[in-house]
Amino acid sequence: MKYHHEKIEAKWQHYWAQNQTFAATNQSDKPKYYVLDMFPYPSGAGLHVGHPLGYIASDIVARYKRHKGFNVLHPQGYDSFGLPAEQYAIQTGQHPEKTTRENIARYREQLDKIGFSFDWSREVRTSNPDYYKHTQWIFIQLFNSWYNLETDKAEDISELISIFQKAGNATVKAVCDDDTEIFFPSDWNAYSEEKKQQILLKYRLTYLAETEVNWCPALGTVLANDEIVNGVSERGGHPVIRKKMTQWSMRISAYAERLLQGLDTIDWSESIKESQRNWIGKSVGAMVKFKVQNPQPATRNSELFIDVFTTRPDTIFGVTFMTLAPEHELVSQITTPEQKAAVDAYVEATAKRSERDRMADVKTISGVFTGAYAEHPFTKEPIPVWIGDYVLAGYGTGAVMAVPCGDERDYAFANFFKGQNGMPEIKNIFNQDISQEAFAAKDGFELVNSDFLNGLGYKEGTQKAIEALEQIGQGKGKTNYRLRDAVFSRQRYWGEPFPVYYVNGLPQMIDSKYLPIVLPEVEKYLPTEDGQPPLGNATHWAWDSVQCSVVSNQLIDHKTIFPLELNTMPGWAGSSWYWMRYMDAHNDTEFASADALKYWENVDLYIGGSEHATGHLLYSRFWNKFLKDKGFAPTEEPFKKLINQGMILGMSAFVYRSEDSKKLYSKGLIAGEKVHPIHVDLSVINDITNELDIDAFKNHPLYSDYKDAEFILENGKYIVGREVEKMSKSKYNVVNPDDICEQYGADTLRLYEMFLGPLEQAKPWNTAGITGVSGFLKKLWRLYFDDNGLIVTNDEPTADMYKTLHKTIKKVTEDIENFSFNTSVSQFMICVNELAQQKCRHRAILEPLAIIVSPYAPHIAEELWEQLGHQGSIATVAFPVFEEKYLVESEKEYPVSFNGKMRFTIKLPLDLTAAQIEEIVMADERTQQQLQGRTPNKVIIVPGKIINLVG
């Protein structure tokens, strides 16, 4: 009976689907275990063999936990809104919904072929209205909430209004905009409704504000920092500029401290935690106000101040200049006429660089003097004000008090512009040498040239400086965070519509009972001719506040019918809460019931890429904490344990074209030749021998330019070059998992991906290595069957068979618990080899072996289980328990040596004494042969280790 993987795998995939084998229940006496993969985006390219790596690992854990008696939730769905589908729609005119649906069908087909134990009954798609109505609902909750610093949580906006009515805002401890004015209850009660709404926007957890954004003119949309690579859009490689726009933002900064503290409570890698800590960027110091001297005529009647946050207020007397971000709002107000042209040119050039590029570029020094001066808060000396692109408007206050003697970047800036107008000499305030570099340490110094701070160190100097700043009203102690509020608007079509309409330019929320507000049809997916987002093309996109429905734009009268929001939500909106929807995926009235949320709580194991460290993972934690505050989420953190899987790299192939002709040199002949490597599609090479199929290459549409090329062969063959790179369609090194499943089987693919190396590490794909894993499965099959059928017996196994089995149970159990899947595959191979040598045909060994293999190679395990006479699926059969007694050695094979040279071995019970061992060895005829009648001078015996006869 032969092993036919294609029949077996199709049979069991159909069985699982028909019987809903992996459907989880929200009520169970079993302990729960929730394992989740990061939300996949269904691209048109489908899966390559690198994509399933994390899914296979999570599936092994899910299957193992079912065997161990857990009620396992292992769902799957699609993060189906996003820019790629919209760009494809622009190019082809096809509706993004259509292409997304087709891509999802392709993904589902591929995922099913690999045999994942997903609970498909809970599938979600972020682009479905029945899903995004809940995203819209969460947005409304955020809009109707503020952050109370006294209770350290989000509360309903109605409570804040009540405080304003009774006491104004002077004593309110809340997270709000820095420019929020102080008012008394009499003021509040006298304000117009419009004025009240404007004030409340300064407190709401989602709000409208003019914000510096990454604007991509070619894509017609705002991009997040993680959507920009090397200053251009990740999608399409288009230029990105900084631009001020009125945008929706999320007040994630309110949660900065809780996001930091929460990292200590979760089982994530230190590298991911550190990425988040750095992104949040907590720093303790002081906010200092520097008064602008002699403001320009347009602002002469009002006092202007430059606010600076510094972690080193002790160095206040070392300030010799200030630097503003080029985008800082004061730049245009304080720049002198003489400097205007230079400043304008610099600001324009900086707008073309992304924040990420500016942060990363520590070598380039550039800046321009504004011509303006600020006043030192204590000495009243003039301090020149510069602009420089190393200062970012979105970090701190967008202004730096430069202390060159104590900061390397300030030191370099001051020396670069040394001698120029507006750049004073560096002033040293430390009793340390700064002739070669700045002194940046926080200890080992005393302050000098620092007035009332002279003789103090960092700690005492900081405290005294803050006290003095507070006394003169020009500063105060403050804890600051680098974390900025997240821009939440996108000028795109294919995203969640905001449940927002506008009355007199102010946002109004649509009542939750009328959700979802469904994405309208549009003729074009591009921005309008006057620069509005794509929804500006919609003709049926206005809100009737009486009928409570979406109506024609032509009916807008600004009395009862108003314009709807034209922006859509970003890609991270739907993915910031999706794990909760899986808990209760078909609930029509709420995003998940309280009972379902209480039962599942949060994700026990989350597997995905490290590239989401400061995007998705941070936003998800923020939304989870908010929903916890509002009484919906049961836990503070969404994901208990996080594992970042490494990347499977592709093995690219190259031909080598000479620079001055169409000669193509084989790999072994390029030495000394000037050649240009050209990526080759893997379909035209033999992946094992690396030989190019020249005819196939010439006839391939990608290489039509080389039909007449001369191929320089070695030994009559053209051998391509190989190199490990990121697996990518553009490098033609993508391997389709469908091809592997068809040729070798899904179980082989699953085992091989785990066998490649530790889950967290990057590793190259090599199809040639897969044959060994395929051979292992055939060898496993032959333990159970010969040509005539099942050969399993009910005989009692030998001690060695039990030892092999329990050694494997122990190893595989430990490996899965420690997520060391690659070493399990090695152990399976050792186990099968040993059992084959032992001629094991014993049910007591082979039944538990099928269960142990099941998480890794579920199809063959199911078939073996059925052939052994069992009904139903193997999926929930109890996992074998390791028993130590089978590994306890009762005998020892001793090497017997004569004068240090081993001559033979002898098996003896381990409980023998040294005297008993000596008696048995001396009586052995092989000993007598070696001694030839002699009596040894000494017999050295260490029980359990050595036997050595000397002399």
From TrEMBL:
EC number assigned by the record: 6.1.1.4
Principal place of residence: cytoplasm
Domain Leucyl-tRNA synthetase editing: 277-469
Record-listed ATP binding positions: K729
Entry's localization field: Cytoplasm
Locus of motif 'KMSKS' region: 726-730
Domain Aminoacyl-tRNA synthetase class Ia, first and last residues per copy: 12-144, 720-752
Reaction catalyzed: tRNA(Leu) + L-leucine + ATP = L-leucyl-tRNA(Leu) + AMP + diphosphate
Regions crossing the membrane: none
One Pfam family here: Anticodon_1
PROSITE patterns: AA_TRNA_LIGASE_I
Gene Ontology MF, one: leucine-tRNA ligase activity
Keywords assigned: Aminoacyl-tRNA synthetase, ATP-binding, Cytoplasm, Ligase, Nucleotide-binding, Protein biosynthesis
Domain Methionyl/Valyl/Leucyl/Isoleucyl-tRNA synthetase anticodon-binding stretches: 801-913
Family recorded in the similarity comment: Belongs to the class-I aminoacyl-tRNA synthetase family.
Xref: PANTHER family: LEUCINE--TRNA LIGASE, MITOCHONDRIAL, LEUCYL-TRNA SYNTHETASE
Record protein name field: Leucine--tRNA ligase
Protein source organism: Flavobacterium sedimenticola
Gene this protein is translated from: leuS
